[in-house]
Design brief:
With about 350 residues, this protein is α/β, with parallel strands linked by helices. The chain folds into 2 domains: about 35-215, Rossmann fold (3-Layer(aba) Sandwich); about 220-345, Rossmann fold. It is built from 14 helices and 12 strands. A 7-stranded parallel sheet has the order 3-2-1-4-5-6-7, sandwiched between helices. Strands 10-11-9-8-12 form a 5-stranded parallel sheet, with helices on both faces. It starts with a helix and ends with a helix.
Length: about 350
Amino acid sequence: MTTLPLRIYGFAARMAAPFIALFLARRARTGKEIPARISERYGIAGRTRPAGPLIWVHAASVGETISIMPVIIELAEYATILLTTGTVTSASIAAGKIAELDLADRVIHQFVPLDVPRWVARFLDHWAPDAAIFVESEIWPHLIAGLTARGVQIFLLNGRMSAKSFQLWQRAPRTAGFLMGLFRWIAAQSEEDAVRFRGLGSVAVLAQGNLKFAAPALTDNEPLRSKLAAGLSAHTWLAASTHPGEEIIAIDIHRRLLAHDPNATTIIVPRHPARAGEIASLAPDLTMRRRAHGETPEPGCIYLADTLGELGVFFRLCPIAFRTRRIFSPLPDRLYRRISGADRRA
């Protein structure tokens, strides 16, 4: 079975393929893709498929990757795990976790192919998974349909369906019902999510709770924490996992804090450390120190924690922390500067 929206989607994906290739090349130039591994986005495998059973687990980004690791540890006892992600940061986190847990011989990381039919077919033909697990809200029609056509059972774990996504899917009820019905079962984050999945035609839906709440505490590094603490003032706060448009807000807050306490310290941990240079350029008049350069904070500075795997250290250092969850796209930095008058204050 297929539907008109899915046929239109498939046609659009095939026609857009040359432009997607240009888009990926641009992302590679800006550090959002790894040039040496960009072929994986076209479904070209970077590794040989090992013999024996293989379970494919797809986690889009950092949060999903961390939350699914306990499940991967359990599954790796029975099969090789192919873990795919979609961002450079999540790939780095995955590599670190695989090494930390000594799973290199049981877990393979690849970048997920984009949802273009021939790229998906190439990926599935090579890896031939015996089962597939998607995490949270990763519902890609060609990937799901391709797995079903090959007789592979598909599961959605830690399923999330926002009110906005639910309303969008309701505009194409036959398409939603068809795709949701391809999952063998869905383990939703909450009963509210479960109700929405059922409302779209899913039958086997369980409200199992949010895996992220069961994740182990973020890693600490006591020697590093002691070293960094020596340069922090009593008035220190943390802006964690920031996206474009949010750092300029944190910088504006820092300026206001300095008016009350010249020693106030702001720590910014960007979601994507590769953006550190861009962030540093937003406040050339302020003292900014960078973790990636081996620098330590000092009172009155902005400390840019542009590394991976150290967020637990910074949460433990700061009595006040602000962490975003992207519900909407924040204003671009330039637009926010114009609206807020940040340019005039700089």
